[in-house]
Amino acid sequence: MNQASSSATPTTSATDHRNRITGFLSDYGIIVAFIVLCVILSVVSPYFLGVNNLLNVLRQVSINGVLAIGMTFVILTRGIDLSVGSMMAFAAMVAASFAVVDSGMPLIVPLTLGLAAGLALGCVNGVMVARFAIPPFVMTLGMLSMARGLTYIYSDGMPISSLSPSFLWLGQGMVVGIPVPVILFAAVFMLAWFTLRYTTFGRYVYAVGGNPTAARLSGIKVSRITFSVYAISGLLCGLAGLMIAARTSAALPQAGVAYELDAIAAVVIGGTSLAGGKGRIVGTLFGVLIIGVINNGLDLLGVSSFYQQLVKGAIIVVAVMLDRSRLSNT
Amino acid sequence: MNQASSSATPTTSATDHRNRITGFLSDYGIIVAFIVLCVILSVVSPYFLGVNNLLNVLRQVSINGVLAIGMTFVILTRGIDLSVGSMMAFAAMVAASFAVVDSGMPLIVPLTLGLAAGLALGCVNGVMVARFAIPPFVMTLGMLSMARGLTYIYSDGMPISSLSPSFLWLGQGMVVGIPVPVILFAAVFMLAWFTLRYTTFGRYVYAVGGNPTAARLSGIKVSRITFSVYAISGLLCGLAGLMIAARTSAALPQAGVAYELDAIAAVVIGGTSLAGGKGRIVGTLFGVLIIGVINNGLDLLGVSSFYQQLVKGAIIVVAVMLDRSRLSNT
Amino acid sequence: MSTPLLHAEGIAKSFSGVPALTNGQLSLRAGTVHALCGGNGAGKSTLLNVLMGILQRDAGYVQIDGREVNFPSPHDALDTGIAMISQELEPVPDMTVAENIFLGREPRLMGALVDHRRMRLQAEQLLRELELHLPANARLGSLSIADMQMVEIARAISRDARVIIMDEPTSAIGERETELLFAAVERLKARGTGIIYVSHRMNELYRIADDYTIMRDGTFIETGAMADIDRHRLITTVLGKELDEEYAKYNRPGADTLLEVDDYGRGKDFERVSLDLKAGEILGIFGLMGSGRSEFLDALFGAAPAERGSARLRGAPFQPREPGDAMRAGIAYVTEDRKGSGLVMGASIKRNVTLASIPDVARNSLIHEGMEDAVATPFVERLQIKASSLDMPVKQMSGGNQQKVVLAKWLQTQPSILLLDEPTRGVDVGAKREIYAFMSEFARDDRAIIMTSSEIPEVLGMSDRVIVFRKGRISGELHGDELTQENLVRLSS
Amino acid sequence: EDPLRIGAATYGLQGEFMQLWSNALEAHPAVLSGDVEVTVFDGRYDALVQSNQFDSMITRQYDAILFVPIDADACVAPVIKASAAGIPVVGSNTRCNTDQLASFVGSDDVLAGQMVAQQVIDQIGDNGKVVVLEGPIGQSAQIDRGEGIDKVLAENPGIEVLERRTANWSRAEALSLMENWLTAHRDEIGGVIAQNDEMAIGAIQAIIASGRSPNDIAIAGVDGITDALKAVTQEQMATILQDATAQAQGALDVALARLGKADEVPLSDIWERYPELEWAGGEADTYNIPWTLVDQDNVAELLEQRQ
Ligand SMILES: Nc1ncnc2c1ncn2[C@@H]1O[C@H](COP(=O)(O)OP(=O)(O)OP(=O)(O)O)[C@@H](O)[C@H]1O
Ligand SMILES: Nc1ncnc2c1ncn2[C@@H]1O[C@H](COP(=O)(O)OP(=O)(O)OP(=O)(O)O)[C@@H](O)[C@H]1O
Ligand SMILES: O[C@@H]1[C@H](O)[C@H](O)CO[C@H]1O
Ligand SMILES: [Mg+2]
Ligand SMILES: [Mg+2]
């Protein structure tokens, strides 16, 4: 609830200490919900707590995680980005087209072009929202459609596969036993956490979402901040595009359909308000993990796919209820 | 922009008259965008303006139209309903199961049960949002999943077809040359328009969305209103479920996937703000029509699958830009 | 005579073709306080918003140090050394006090990082200097309106600006805080800062202003030295008509008890509150900021029900659990935060006036627009609400006029008990008098008013009896001759 | 002895065909007898989801995996991973471009494309105008059936393609699309080549709604879903039956053979139904389940099986 109170001042007394702990829990009720979920899953499935499975979960959430982090920036400014799935697919396609085994391109080329493709589309969103005041929902809905169209046109509707091993490493490689996508996700998370917490840009993102008028009156260039968050989201879609193409060994024209829902869900489950100005990247991390753990757990348990949908929906609601009811008690 | 200013008082002078027209146009800039779109389409396609084609468009938009009207109520209160597609599919399945040719049920049974199925799920959304303060996005995302699961469970994943002719009439019949779904949509539209404009309930909906605190302190039972809009949305999903089953001659478990996007898009394109309290059902009507006309026009023109997405997205953005730029000029 | 620090002339601004300002003019000297006077809707805020680059002028020019300037955005005005406390509070609720104060100019590390520690220390120091007892790391949204206002004041003052615009900075704060502000203003003057000051409280103007400028209907009327204009003439010029500034008080309390409150308490907000309200009475409640007055009124109205104690209304038990309960019992409540809890800002005047009595303008649940107009129109006249039409969204109205709409909304419910929390916030002298006259007329027969106000003259002038709150408890009750400023101050602090 | 645990990774259960496939799996004699336990996964039309589900199945150490991939290339990495973990993967329905599959039991989509196009052309003759309804862009079935359709069209230069668009396997989408095409092309459309039956049925409904008779237009689809069979009885369309039962049960039989259990548990009866299909002890690389053209001769019998 209270996004600012954790910039804690040095305190000494015991009650202050207790306040900080309950404050932490009510700030991060979603962590409690996550822990409860994990405990339940590890009781019902002996496989859940295995190191390999936990790495699986992390690898599985890494793409949604990267998208959700960009989405957090956007939502903090009261915006929304519906186009993440399509932008990701487009970036994947562009990157893959330069990463096929016999293209002979150095790895840097597909990487750069993939990120650039995402960034470019994100900038278009940003300009239209920030400069031409198109409502974010409409602009990014348009982009959802346009980027998908571009993906079809660019790829002629065909998947691109036979990607070079060095490119595939991005999605399938390991570094000191940790999957590369997980490392990428972690790096993006830390950078975003640091940015939102410690940089002036991060503070301005909160201010623009919290009260755009106040932000403007304080001399903040609101439209520049607004533009930036869409650009960031686009850039991260570019990264997610590289990751998904490398992970599935192919860029598919239909990749990422409906991914916006999971990304937004992670952000909202993590306690960031769609009304802007309030929320945290740590919440998003746990939102992403909750969704991932639910999917993984239901798969591990072999719950029938009909009941999966029912159970998945119910767990999401209950997790958030748990979070919110904690809040109202404190 | 100004949701209240059109309830014009009787005026006489010429400038007043002019003001009323420009006021109307800036209130309804989206109508201008719609007209521009229609003019362009009728120039590039000789078929566009045919009576049959226009009836086709109306028939094609009627299901999204009914969903978008329920969505308008929800969004006016600052909410969102992501579960409309799934609730519709569930209602369709329930209705169809009692409408198969050899069930021998009178028509009233599937109709009632279909509507009741939608209403029931909508009430669940309503209770959880209004009473337990689950954020609407999370609750209805959960319902999106849960209602789909229920649909699969209820139908065992198989379509239900061979529906009785009297039931099919709802989707395929005609009355005085007008398709029945169009009549249903028109009736729902008029009722909604009347409700929002002339009834106390309509007022409450706007007030709750405009400033829930002020509404509560003015003695309005905010949670009752909030509950009601989700119930209305559910009920209209029930109706849409009857319509789609009758139109496609079958209830399909996968029906309505991603329909929430089109419904929300219609509302937002129509000028209703996701921030609540501001918007009009007439705007939604034209939002629905714009989406329908774009789809129809691109089909008529034979635009390829690849370019269709690109063009569709671009037109949506441009239409809204046209609307918004009109506003900022006045 | 030296060049003025800031000089503006011929400033015009219209909204959708309707002029709000036709000829704004103002000359500010360095090291002085310049009072900008005018009735509600005279165009003061519009002029100031133009000066600040929030609005773009249609005509006229602005000079700083004799050089013409044009600010496309507040950013540019701030860069040039102009800061503003805007009339409407603009807090970022989910940021801390320190973050709000330093928004846009945070102490930095390595160019792009916020130095949170230094920011907090600087904020603490600033708050200390201003004698504000606010934690620098409290979330702004958890503060009272008054405290938020003080934070905005701190923000503007700490900017080291050469020109500070203060648009009704005291409308939401108490006497003590006002003194803190004035002390700061004196320090700023001494540094050569020029201050443009707007307030509808005449006492304040005579205390701190050096010069004045009067506006009426969007036009400059006259300017001069504060010392050269007496109170009567100032008011008459502002209003454009003869009017004495006085309290129109002619209600007469009866003997019947209307409302009895016994041992009310809720959380830490207030406790052991017992009082009664007589028919025909205007009961004042006075206290410092944060003394729990508003919370007590919230409880009486059922907005945040009391947790302890009981109440009786006309002898019958009265236990409001939600506002509807209190409304049915004939209670109306004008809250102190019109933007947050009083108005639907995007909705029209008409709809706001009828907001709390929608069923009254409906038959069989159908709104009757004719009745709605009939309901709203008399208030526009009665309260001198300045608006181009009843369909104007309230967010386009001047602040004082918005306040009148809130009053109208509650009067329309035809209550028998009125709870008024800072009822004249931002209201001009003319309309204040109307409101006072109305209050006196209202509190008759079996009707009564409970009023809180931070303006001591208003409390003394209008109340038949005053109950003083201190830290959530009643610290005393004053009647008749005891009703003096000294007693109020003594009991409240 | 514990039952064998087999995971079935389908590309998605939203649609009748894959539902028939999974139902057939559950109806396999070895499953009914309790010798085998199957878990069906819904891939939600997403290669990434399928890949994640493989991870879970590997963690749970399923004995074998039946795999209906969404994409012929994106399926490769999961298959390699499962094989490396010692889990045999048997492909079904949709091919996968890897030699690591234990075997593939499915039908040739290119052939289906050829057959469905040929059906329509046989009816309208050498000269005529057709429209083509395609699956979701980029899915293997869409690409391969499209290839087959193209082949036949290339051999028939007299056939003009008026329109060719995706309706995403969806009846509702095809219905609207066809309504609009009927407006733009009035009475020109002589045939509808649909890459699956759902879309063909949407087209039929649009044709009926426009006041025309589907009997006058040559329509064909792929799959043999129940509504299509009914339409065949009314001579409204032709369909090419894709035998979901054979694909599913055949794949399970082969998987059991690879696990060395073929002799212990009962095999399905599909091997009797298609005498031309060589069982070969479950050792073959590919089992090509034949497509069956549904016509008046066999439709009644097929409908009967659906009850
Ligand atoms: N955005 C707007 N759109 C239309 N009219 C506006 C807008 N802003 C202000 N006005 C009009 O301009 C006039 C002047 O308003 P302004 O806020 O400047 O008055 P003010 O002198 O500050 O009054 P107060 O003392 O009540 O604050 C008012 O009649 C108001 O309705
Ligand atoms: N013990 C407390 N702990 C924390 N916050 C407090 C405490 N007491 C008061 N406050 C803050 O001060 C506010 C109380 O102010 P309130 O509006 O009730 O006082 P008031 O007497 O009406 O004064 P005014 O309206 O003039 O500010 C509360 O909203 C709360 O945020
Ligand atoms: O083979 C199946 C069916 O044709 C179905 O209708 C769509 O997906 C394809 O892969
Ligand atoms: Mg003002
Ligand atoms: Mg108060």
TrEMBL record, chains A, B:
Keyword annotations: Cell inner membrane, Cell membrane, Membrane, Transmembrane, Transmembrane helix, Transport
Bilayer-spanning residue ranges: 28-49, 61-77, 84-101, 107-130, 137-155, 167-194, 225-245, 257-274, 281-298
Pfam families xref list: BPD_transp_2
Record's subcellular location: Cell inner membrane
Membrane-topology annotation of the record: Multi-pass membrane protein
Principal cellular location given in the protein's record: membrane
Gene Ontology molecular function terms on file: transmembrane transporter activity
InterPro entries assigned to the protein according to its UniProt record, in alphabetical order: ABC_transp_permease (IPR001851)
GO cellular component: plasma membrane
Family: Belongs to the binding-protein-dependent transport system permease family. AraH/RbsC subfamily.
Protein name per its UniProtKB record: ABC transporter permease
Organism expressing this protein natively: Halomonas cupida
TrEMBL record, chain C:
Residue ranges constituting the ABC transporter domain according to the UniProt record: 6-242, 253-491
PROSITE patterns per record: ABC_TRANSPORTER_1, ABC_TRANSPORTER_2
Keyword Membrane found: yes
Membrane topology: Peripheral membrane protein
UniProt subcellular location: Cell membrane
GO MF entry, a single one: ATP hydrolysis activity
Keyword Transmembrane helix: no
Keywords: ATP-binding, Cell membrane, Membrane, Nucleotide-binding, Repeat, Sugar transport, Translocase, Transport
Coiled coil spans: none
One GO cellular component term: plasma membrane
Annotated protein name in UniProt: Putative xylitol transport system ATP-binding protein
Native source organism of the sequence: Halomonas cupida
